[in-house]
Fold:
Amino acid sequence: MFRYLLLACVLLALNSLSAQTPPSEPSHADILRGSYGPYRANNDLLSYALDIRVDPVEKTISGKNTIRFRMLKDDGRIQIDLYENLNVDKVLFAGGNLKYRRDAGAVFIDFPQTLKSGKTYSIDFYYSGKPTYGERGGMLFRTDPAGRPWIASSCENPGSSIWWPSKDQWRDEVENMTISVAVPNGLMDISNGRLLGSKDLGDGYTRWDWAVSYPINNYGISINVGRYDHWSEKLGDLDLNFYALPEDIEKAKKQFEQARGMLAAYQHYFGEYPFKRDGYKLIQTPYVGMEHQSAVAYGNRFTNGFVGKDFTGVGISTKFDYIIIHESGHEWFGNSVTAADISDAWIHEGITTYLECLYVEYTFGHDDYLKYVNSYRKMVENKEPVVATRGIAKQLNLDMYTKGALFMHTLRSIVSDDAKWWKLLHGFYQHFKYQNIMTEDVAAWFSRRVGTDLTPVFNQYLRHTAIPKLELRFDESKKEVSYRWRVDEPTFVMPVKVGTPGNWQVVRPTTEWQTLKTSIPPADFTAATDLYFIDIDKR
Ligand SMILES: [Zn+2]
Structure:
């Protein structure tokens, strides 16, 4: 149930049961989309100009993406991605048609001459068709309760190429982009970035033009087409823009007030909202939520918790709107700091789940923080490592969220000095903002700043299934307790508070036995499991 709820809220998979099926071998398409192959690695994205028309009646999209890139080596071929069910109409380069070969979701494009390293090129990729919407996302063609078209994209798991031609991977981002979406008159499109304006095309359609002035990951790009009402506010000098269906505008005005507290909390911990030039937007959508950059998708029914439910079951979730707090947290981790491979998506989901906990601490206090972060323990499965196999377009697993957050919480307890921890967190974000990074980068950064090699700790929590187990063996006659970690990482060392609640002492167990004198009876001797995500084996 918790998995169902949590996955649903972030992945909009309201009827998904696929997370419960055993992991299958990656398909050829998963490898083509997930790996950073030679025809991706030979170029660096500079910009996209996506220019499409959306037909709500036929449920089709048609148009083009102008892709600008710089070659990193001499080569005559690049890989762009587009789901097989969508048509490639033509690919133009310098006025001529390019040859291409389709292989599953990949489109290998050949140039008539060698493209030169260091030079910039641009292609116009024309496409059309009916994008799909599966359990984990895609392009959703719906009508709103008043019967008007309501269309929205969401593609963290299936990838951007489910609805538009793109270099559908996480490592390489464009520096900026424009998004132009033509929709029937009376509807509007809301996408990422700033609204440049709209233009009546004279054929019953109006084109809405948006400009993104920051790097943006592919799955963060979205369209939201509907009959929207809009209002704007300011938080300091940050522009806030809110969009809701006309019938829901009063409810939205009340619920969306939480955006201000959310922004205040995250700016407190990490620094300025990352996409200030583009502003912050919250947009009502027909699905539950998604972290689209500067254009957060909201469908949480204007209630607190997750669709009104206390989904972590300790009375904290219902104090705030999960979708506003979680999805917007991704502006810092997911959109600004981005993982370079979907295998390391805990950098998005685990750290953002930890951001929820920080929001709780900032807003409701430390006791609620502890209650809330530990409420995620019962959702951890420990069935597969948090960090998945590199180079495979694989679906996210729940432990990336829950165990990822509990790992960050444990790291705070390892540091065991909150003033230092807040500085570390702020510094970590500031160091990596607007970059695409891997788990190794996170481990190396914290190790350097904390002054001890934390790699075995990162590895144990993120690259093995089991969490550390603290083994305690008592010798009552000698008033002694022996302790060590039972872990997979042979060089694992982690301090932990042991003793009795309110009277802890810090020990530094390794994988070798050490002994401590204690007058605490074995029945009372324990460890601070609310501060560290660990198991205890006491005998
Ligand atoms: Zn998320």
